[in-house]
Amino acid sequence: MTPCATEPSAGVVQASELQAGPLHLGVPRGAAATALTRPVALVALGLLLLNDHVLKASMPGLLSGKLSDFCGVLLLPLWLTAAGEWVAARLGVISIVTPRRLLTANLVLTASVFGGMQLLPAIEGLYTHGLGLARWPFRALGALWSGAALPRWAPVRSTADPTDLVALVMLPIAPWLAARSVGRRLSVQRGAAAPRPSECAP
User: Fold this and answer.
1) Is residue 77 domain-resident?
2) What percent of the chain is helix, strand and coil (3-state, nearest 5)?
3) How many domains does the chain have?
């Protein structure tokens, strides 16, 4: 029996592509970006939005006070890594700024900033003012759309609470989720690249 050559099917993600992080619709197809499309990350995002916009006002308490912290600590390193891969691909330095290095750096950054917010007033102040500044353009667009007056810039409200540090237990889930997402993509690739019996010459 003559062995058949195996070629990847069209649209199948290659292992080299996942490491290089090529662009797909303006989004890098690396581990972090793939992980953000998985049910765990999507549920975390939904809970974060629900908690910030509904539960904190209607059900104030321990659960709503901690839920956003848990979800944010999980998602932030993935968001930062996906954005970093996109920028690195645009600049042509993706071989230097690898996804693994980015994710490791962003895990350390997330732990440092989140921990510092709960323990150091200076870092908490930088966070509240920086986030308030980042949110202002979106609030301004909403005001223009509705015909209201432009809102004033103001820092977000934040209350330092050392017990929030318990949310750091979510950090190891981010690299696990990224590795699991890439593993699933590679499994799909191997299955699509496998030759069909009917295509092999007898």
Assistant:
1) yes
2) 70, 0, 30
3) 1
Instruction: Report pLDDT digits (tens) over 183-197.
Output: 554 444 445 445 555
The verdict on residue 28 lying in a domain is: yes
Pairs from 85-90 (Cβ < 8 Å, separation ≥ 24)? 85/21, 85/28, 85/30, 85/32, 85/33, 86/21, 86/23, 86/26, 86/27, 86/28, 86/33, 88/21, 89/20, 89/21, 89/22, 89/23, 89/28, 90/23
Per-residue pLDDT of 106-130, as tens digits, reads 999 999 999 998 888 888 888 888 8
Residue 125 lies in a domain: yes
Find, among 165, 185, 153, 178, the residue nearest to 77 by Cα. 178
Does some domain include residue 192?
A: no
Integer Cα distance of 195 and 8 in angstroms: 9
Structural domain including 21 reads: 15-186
Which residue carries 């891969």 as its tokens?
Answer: 85
